[in-house]
User: What shape does this take?
Amino acid sequence: MQKTFNSNVVPRRSAEQRIPDSSMSLTNGTRDGFAFILVGLPGMEAAQFWLAFPLCAMYLVAVVGNCAVIYAVKTDPALHAPVYFFLCMLSAVDVLLSTCTMPKILSFFWFDAREIGYNACLAQMFFIHALSGAESTVLLGMAVDRYVAICHPLRHSAVLTNSMTAKIGFVAVARGALFFLPLPLLINRLPLCGSRVLTHSYCVHQDVMHLACGDRMPNVAYGLTAILAVMGLDSLLIFLTYAVIMKTVLQLPSRQEQLKASGTCLAHVCVVLAFYVPLIGLSVLHRFGRDLPTA
Assistant: This one.
């Protein structure tokens, strides 16, 4: 639930009061002028302006770093291998994912631009979920690459060709888009009424869905199905893949070979954890966080 703003943050409270009354139900004819209200960091409203500077620095570092990875792999023929192509895919997804959220967050923190238009919110929602689904598929592809390289090293060059890697990348993009395109369409069918206030500085399906006053069951059912069919299935397959990898690594004759084989998977495991742990945490927050009492 949204926490009450600090009493010393007068400009932000006044900005919200200037927004037209949001208690009326919205029809298709009035959605064009409708805007959601973003929420920053509860209890830290006064510090948001200064927190935007390190956030901006992190965003610039992420964009420059990921673009440097893509450029290095593109220009160096020695890096034209599946593992580096997967790394480029991850870099591209990270740049797009951060770009579709961070500029709006910075404008909110710096210029108090708390409103986001209805269509802009749905577009941001689609890109956040679709890109997250694509990243999950790429992580699964990287796990398969490590499985073939460790468990079937003689077949690696024949199975994980550059052509096959490109096909996996195409499947990742198509899968993310097809599975999560219905989310904004399902939101569009709902009458929006009551509060306009989101619980984040960006738009996600679970958050926007709770502002609707119609039948949300199709949204709940499909949202859960899409998450389980993409992120849930991918995480299960990644876990099973690494279980087989670890079994193979432990059967290697020497300790040095075991460390070398497991070391090639360590970076990927860290990336997998960095992706799925916040995703699970956000899902739990949306499921149970609204039932928690406010401070």
Summary: Residues 1-25 have pLDDT under 50 and may be disordered. The chain has one domain: 32-288. The beta strands are 35-37, 115-117. The CA atoms of residues 59 and 102 lie 7 Å apart.
